[in-house]
Amino acid sequence: YVCDGTADEVQINAALASLPSGKGTVTLTAGTFVTGASVEVTEYQILQGQGVDATVIQASTATHHVVHMGNRQADGIMRNWMGLRDLSVASAGGANVYSTVWADGVGLGSFVENVKASEGAYNFRITDADQCAFRNLKGFNPRVASLYCEVGLENTWGNVGFSNIAMALSDNDT
Fold first, then answer.
1. CB 137 within 8 Å of CB 124
2. Which among 68, 85, 51 is positioned nearest to 122, based on CA atoms?
3. Is the pLDDT of residue 138 over 60?
4. CB atoms within 10 A of CB 55
5. SS3 label, residue 30
6. I need a labelling partner for 31 at 20 to 30 A (CA). Which of 58, 79, 87, 115 fits?
7. In terms of Cα–Cα distance, which of 143, 146, 160, 155 is closest to 72?
């Protein structure tokens, strides 16, 4: 799949969907990938870059979550074994309600590690997370808060690990 700097989420999502049995890793090259809609990572999928200073997923508009992992808010199902690592994610900025990285119903074995996020209402929004890990995260310039976190909701254990988290602080940070 070759991205051209316009609506790159189409090619990235197609690469994720084409993984054998929907499982595996998509590795992005170094460079900037411009999106006009969400990149969707689901169960048994990993999206990785070449490092936070090498690979950037950049939203072209402030009308979507830049990277969305899981989908519990829509269908009520926890998803396991998904990951995001070694890249930067940037929203288009502006006063919006969308998150730069939204982990929604991520479960057993899921992770976000070595990720830098900027802009968006929340740099990192974590909802309904259980038995997963968030490591080496950096958040900058949020509109509301760098980190929004709800764990252990709706019959989950709430066993979530956090380490090496650096966030831009505001009066609203939680």
1. yes
2. 68
3. yes
4. 21
5. coil
6. 79
7. 155
CB atoms within 10 A of CB 93: 14
Q: How far is CA 165 from CA 22, 39, 114, 117, in A?
A: 30, 23, 10, 12
* Both tokens assigned to 72: 């519990």
> How many CB atoms are closer than 10 A to CB 21?
6
CA distance 165 to 117: 12
Give the number of C-alpha atoms closer than 13 A to the C-alpha of residue 12, restricted to the C-beta side.
31
User: Would you say residue 153 has pLDDT above 90?
Assistant: no
What is the mean predicted confidence (pLDDT) over 128-145? 88
Q: Of 13, 17, 19, 38, which is closest to residue 89 (Cα–Cα)? A: 38
What is the rounded average pLDDT of the residues 4-24? Answer: 96
Structure tokens at 136: 């080496």
Can you read off the two tokens belonging to residue 17? 């969907």
Amino acid at 130: D
Q: How far apart are CA 148 and CA 42, in angstroms?
A: 20
Beta pairing class for 39-41 and 67-70? parallel
